[in-house]
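Researcher: Please predict.
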Amino acid sequence: MRISFPVLLTGILTVFPVHSYTQVPDLLDALRNVRTAEFCGEPVPFQDPDVRERFEKEFMLMLWNRPQVLLYLKRTARFFPVIESILKEMDLPDDLKYMALVESALRPEVRSHKGAAGIWQFMEGTGRQYGLAITDSIDARRHTDRATRAAVRYLVMLRDTLGSWTLAAAAYNMGEYGLKEEMRRQGMRDYYRLHLPIETQRYLFRIVSAKLILSDPVRYGFILMESDLYPPHDAVRVTLTLTRPLPVRLIALAAETDFKRIKDLNPEIRGYDLSAGRHEIFIPRMAEDRFRSRIQKMIRSWEETVRSGATDR
């Protein structure tokens, strides 16, 4: 029996004819069929046996870890359209989106043991340098749109400084000054011929592997229906101007949802309170019509409670 169904990946609706069973391709066949690859238009030099060997290791490891690749594919429908639209707006290579996938597995809430956070895994200092608010109550590194705009500005600077997207990606991974020092001491400006920390030596090959697999998942035995994918959050952006901190649970009440839902929609909010100031946050779309009147009542009631000194958090 032969059937067809729509698959939505990275914002493009495509119809793939498939069989009623999924055949996982042989690893050797998959390797042999990869003859060329590039990152942001820059070819991977597979004619170098060392480069080919390093690529094959990362490609096989990613293909072997099929549950992780399935999660990658499921999350792309939620996060790639945001990243793609920013890259297109700024006339930058679409391949850069795979860096976010390798950095964080498209999980805005993730934090590394070194302190990097968000979908682009910004360190605190670099995040602030590129305009991301990081305070006790807000961490914009976890805001997909803002962090993506900061990351691509950083990458453009690295590309302009180092001369290639490949070196820019390596510098993003290990740090600009560390890479420059290695290039100076080794007398080499070719990423593929530099002796770098192991994580950075693997980094580009993981990105290229993700690009190859996710741009043609059916070829590698990943056949998903549209209903399998994690859809974008059905939410709308609203603006709040607060004269004093407001508990997130009150925002949830005004949006007729729960604390967890507001935190999931706005992973940049730290803790239990939204700080004083102007904020743009997401709420469930279905709550939009009544939210403004309800939140104003919540704010007035909360301010009266604070003034009376009868707060109970």
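Model: Confidence is low (pLDDT under 50) at residues 1-21.
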